[in-house]
Amino acid sequence: MSTADLPVSPVQQAPTVRIGALQWLRANLFNSWSNAILTVLGLGLIYLLVSRFVVWGVLDAVWSGPASACGEDKGACWAVLGEKGRFILFGRYQYDEQWRPLLFLILFIGLVGVSTFRRFWGRRLGIAWAVSLVVMCVLMWGGVLGLPYVSHENWGGLPLTVILAVSACLFGFPLGIVLALGRRSKLPAIRAVSVGYIELARGVPLITVLFMAAVMFPLFLPPGMNFDKLLRTQIGMILFAGAYIAEVVRGGLQALPKGQYEAADALGLSYWQKTRLIVLPQALRLVIPGLVNTFIGTFKDTSLVITIGLFDLLNAAKTALNDPVWRAYYVEVFLFVALIYFCFCFFMSKYSQSLEADLRKSARR
Amino acid sequence: MSTATADRAPEPNAPASNEVMIELAGVNKWYGEFHVLRDINLSVHRGERIVICGPSGSGKSTLIRCINRLEEHQKGRIAVENIELTNDVKNIDQIRREVGMVFQQFNLFPHLTVLENCCLAPIWVRKMPRAEAEKVAMHYLERVRIPEQARKYPGQLSGGQQQRVAIARSLCMNPKIMLFDEPTSALDPEMIKEVLDVMIGLAHDGMTMLCVTHEMGFARTVADRIIFMDRGEIVEMAPPKEFFSNPRSERTKQFLSQILEH
Which residues on chain B are in Cβ contact (under 8 Å) with A273? Predict the structure, then answer.
């Protein structure tokens, strides 16, 4: 008897369960006496905090005007941002030219926004990035097309933070991949160099690296030869981020089943073909959460350049508070800066989640 | 196919040519202290089909993995088409291009579609234009009877289908020799047949094959010689009829009685 002759039971739908809001509340928040008490207490605490913040930050707040309009008896003094906001965002960039870093930020954020859609990935997007990079440089430095030259020593605020973070991640990423591959190389010399580098870079705090880049490194250069402090800082951050990224990538390389390497070998692929076509696409996919973790960390680590006197977002905010008239309103200023950091980091986190889901969908295991 | 008729079919057991494709002479291998391969001597002729069986840990997988250098041997000589396997990467690459391998766990690339899996090596190793590589791939996917799955990802296929894709992927390189490392051991029973059918088809076409398997029906039907290995040694090597009806060594008899009882 073949299977075709067997009686087939009719297709049945899975029973649906309807849950109303009230039932959900009962099941999740009030399912026992102790839970009910905790729920009520929790709600009370949330109400207390939120209502106080709303009164302070919205209802009693002073939104504009001179410092004299704010005071002890009033709420938040958001007026400080109207006065100091531009300095916080753009640092010591020439006041009349600050539309340029603003345009830089808009261009950058716009491009990142477009790049998040996978259907735009391709040659055109690459060209768009290359062209925009030139435009961004022209905007920031100027000196051509009638734009007055602005030395990068005057760059500051959010653009500087973005430049430091993006360059560290962008160049640290390939460096990290090379180091991770080196650490798993069969050649002892390459392995030793990679391990040594990674352990050294991870073994010192970033502040030390920045100090070395800013202060010590010039001492070793022959007199008369010097290159720029911003560039040195960037290189320091790239080298530092590279070591962390290397260890994340190595995790992915190790998680890949041995059979994948063997299948690629058996087909006659060379080492680099195997690495580029088989190993990395899978390994990097596996470590997206770890990579984004490192990127977020790097973004926030840029605030450490405060120690070597670069005017990144945080340092600009701190400097703005040196003004005795507005000094009292540091909470507002730091909340503003924290919100900016949060927006960037939260975006990275959310995007990595959606990218993961997207990649999972296109290649179900 | 039914084994009863194929058993008597003459063509699978037709004599192979005299040209030696694979030559192993005095091959030894150790994993640390453990002696995995002991003095292996074996010549495989063009078109010959060899089945290797034996208890687990007897070194049968290691033996065929030495032939395309997934494992290194430490003593003795292995030559494929008169190219000796040494540390010379050029030789290794040349041999791997001519030797296809099918694994127990399929080892398809999960991030590539079935078609991309098949085209990858022809495009990158043989430098074939993509359109041609796709044509070749579709030809072999038809041959393993799953052309309709070409655009799917391996994770969407059943085990038997995945293994057939793996065979097609190897065939796309147009290899002269195929190595099978327990190709049906990871499959559900009802899928074993579809894979064995493809392998029997290959054997009929005169492919030189070395197959590690416990499928004794397949061995009986297809093999020119059956090798029994135990503790790293070739204990017995004989044509199927002789191997099953008149094994010489005690260990072979024991092994056969264990696997044929069921």
Answer: 124-125
